[in-house]
Model the fold of this input.
Amino acid sequence: MKVINLSDVTKSTVKMEGAKNVLKQIPIEKADGTPNMSMRVFTVEPLGHTPYHKHEYEQLNYIVEGEGVLINEKGEEKKLAQGDFALVLPNEMHQYKNVSDNRPFIFLCGVPKEFE
Amino acid sequence: MKVINLSDVTKSTVKMEGAKNVLKQIPIEKADGTPNMSMRVFTVEPLGHTPYHKHEYEQLNYIVEGEGVLINEKGEEKKLAQGDFALVLPNEMHQYKNVSDNRPFIFLCGVPKEFE
Done:
């Protein structure tokens, strides 16, 4: 059993091409012995965004704070705000953007443990 | 891709033996095509609790609101509040309790999709 507060989890800058003003934390990772899924938290600073990209694994999201959009494989924007969940399936093109110029957009992102 | 707000997800009462004042929602479940994990949300009403129990699968928790405790396999209480994550491993005895008499205790609970 592990219990940790988000404020105690190291933040690192996402350096992936196409990412702007994005920080990552990993409160639950494979080193903790999680059998299937890891849990990451992304903080997208004002006007920042993740790359518009896809990968072979799914993502389970929960929006903790702020307002943003999730762009789908058709380029359509779906609004995201606190209390929203999203499921991005394997190989779906997607991008998260913070639409605020003064508040962070923070969301959880569960992925298979192999990736973190 | 699925996007849904928690307020739009059906709530059901948990009828498992040992549960008191607990409601469950399942914003991401196997019917959505999730490849590995489902995401549930439990609302433990004031002075409510889950059973003190164990099972063969893990749980990944994030505390959305309120204050509670997570009781481990030794009977020790770990405080939980908004922003905390917990990982309960397979076959670990555990129980969640709301310690407030006037506020709900709400947390996410990721589990393998086979269970929801």
Notes: Chain B has a mean pLDDT of 97.
